[in-house]
Amino acid sequence: MTEEKLSFQAEVSKLLHIVTHSLYSNKEIFLRELISNASDACDKLRYEAQTDSSLLDGDSDFKISLSLDKEAKILTIADNGIGMNHDDLINNLGTIAKSGTEAFLKAAEESGKSDVNLIGQFGVGFYSSFMVAEEVVVTTRKAGEDKAWSWTSNGEGDYVIGDATRDGHGTTIQLKMREDQSEFLEDHRLRHIVKTYSDHISIPIELKGEEDETLNSASAIWTRSQSDVSEEQYKEFYHHVAHAFDEPWLTLHNRVEGVIEYTNLLFIPGSRPMDLFTPERKNHLKLYVNRVFITDDCDEVIPQYLRFVRGVVDSGDLPLNVSREMLQHNPVLAKIKAGLTKKILGELKKKAEKDTEGYVTFWENFGAVMKEGIYEDFAHKQDCLALARFKSTQDDDWVSLAQYVERMKEGQDQIFYISGDDIDALKKSPQLEGFKAKGVEVLFMTDPIDEFWIPGVGAFEEKQFQSITKGGADLSKIKKDGESDEDAKEESADKDGVDRLCAAFKAVLGDSVQEVRSTDRLTDSAVCLVAGEGAMDRNLQRMLKQHGQAVPDDAPILELNPTHSLIKKLVDLSADGTTPTIDDAAHLLLDQARIIEGETIPDMTAFAHRMTSAMEKGLV
Ligand SMILES: Nc1ncnc2c1ncn2[C@@H]1O[C@H](COP(=O)(O)OP(=O)(O)OP(=O)(O)O)[C@@H](O)[C@H]1O
């Protein structure tokens, strides 16, 4: 017999250390995890056997069996699923490729003792066996292969893989229970745990004894009627199907009848899954055909912007032997996708109307993903827009576009927004000053996707979206509450003088600015930068530059606040032509505006010199 001793990947060792040393009291979940894996293994084989029935080798009666040897203190969990070969064992039980593990380990490291909660939140899958067992022996044979393998470990640093014998395909996991965990060797305890956590598993879970006993209902939960499923059972199924450990925020269970028939049991998670923003943008919805698992890797079943939805879709209208390739451009699936999208968006709309507070939780988790729908889903663009919520200058609450339009000021015909990745920095933007002073609400667009959907959508209820960091944002038509035309006029400054100063600044600054002009969007600040109306928004320019993309070399417009005392002084000084003071002021103010925008200034040394000399003049 050959044996190989191998070390766990470093992350696994860390994870195992947490698991074995944790004081986590809910140790019974180890059984849920192992049963969940066994059920997945049966699903996988059932699917593979659709195209190659020889894999079943005459054993198609899928089941999971539990048996107890009280004397030897061994609990055995066996399945006749897909099984594992030598390399699978190393890849699956010696390494972790799961997204989120790193975050889990980091959080565990940072939190010190509270790893207890973390296990509950993240789940540790197969490795949870080591919470209750001092030794775990896995004996497994992969369907279609002759050779069986054993995997043995005490969960401390390494494991041993060796030859083994096993009748038929599948996996047998033997847990040599720790001295203080003998409760899990009691029949009644196992019955209770299976009923609590694994009742929804669609294949039978049997407890071996003089007479074998089936412990679960063994009917696919989604085939039952809603009234036969408790909230607790939905939650446990969600944990199983989503590999999640939080509470579902929304559960959608319904059967659709008509030209195409299908059942869906969908969940919107209560917190963000870890892989939400990975470039693949994968969904994890499980597709079944008449209760036979087909795939959880099919892009055609739900749009990418709804990729946070978890659960199951089962339809008898797809052929059972459908291959993953056949799923592409499949008209039945396209209809299911359209139906699911409509259903989900409809339910979200209801939630948004009925439970504003609860909806905010959803939006804070998934809003940035939902906004991709505004950009990508032409058919549902308006629905997605109506579901969108924004932070604004008005208050700390989230606002919908409809609410925004409703509270627009007299004379206002545009939806004003400012974009950038940091809301706190945005709140301090000088460009906001004039809007705040007039009580005009401005939306904060803080998701990168905002830069893409806004130009595509253009308007909401015929009100154009207008970036306030672009030249075209015009405040002059909007009056302050209670302000008369006369008051408005009084605020404007000596126009000729300002024009003269603008021309002098432009002459000094040359091509580094497209234009220098007076603005009414500032009240406290002296200057700000904006993009020309036809040019790319400055935030988008910054974003693209950060990602190494080519960006058109559009120089910004420098705007001066004619009511600011510094500008007024400079207006007076400019009567004498372009003096060194005007020259320095032009450069300093441009650099200042760049700094406020979070940009680096091209010549730091020159900036420092000018600043020093300006301070000297002021102080001496
Ligand atoms: N009974 C089994 N039969 C076949 N393969 C198995 C079995 N148990 C585990 N595996 C394999 O080992 C892998 C790792 O299992 P583990 O429980 O650690 O993680 P997981 O099931 O992928 O995720 P989670 O932690 O969310 O349950 C599984 O993805 C599967 O490939």
UniProtKB/TrEMBL annotation:
UniProt similarity note: Belongs to the heat shock protein 90 family.
Q: Residue limits of the Histidine kinase/HSP90-like ATPase domain? A: 26-181
| Main localisation | cytoplasm
Provide a Gene Ontology MF annotation, just one: unfolded protein binding
The protein's name is: Chaperone protein HtpG
Record flagged with keyword Nucleotide-binding: yes
Q: What positions belong to coiled-coil segments? A: none
Record's Gene Ontology CC terms?
cytoplasm
Q: Which residues bind ATP?
A: 33, 37, 79, 84, 92, 98-100, 121-126, 171, 324
Q: Where in the cell is it found?
A: Cytoplasm
Q: How does it assemble?
A: Homodimer.
Chain residue ranges for the region called A: 1-324
Q: Has UniProt tagged this entry with the keyword Nucleotide-binding?
A: yes
Recorded hits in Gene3D superfamilies, A to Z, give: 3.30.230.80, 3.40.50.11260, Heat shock protein 90, C-terminal domain, Histidine kinase-like ATPase, C-terminal domain
* PANTHER family the record matches: HEAT SHOCK PROTEIN 90 FAMILY MEMBER
A Pfam match: HATPase_c_3
UniProt region (C), positions on chain: 543-620
Q: What does this protein do?
A: Molecular chaperone. Has ATPase activity.
The protein's UniProt keywords, in alphabetical order, are: ATP-binding, Chaperone, Cytoplasm, Nucleotide-binding, Stress response
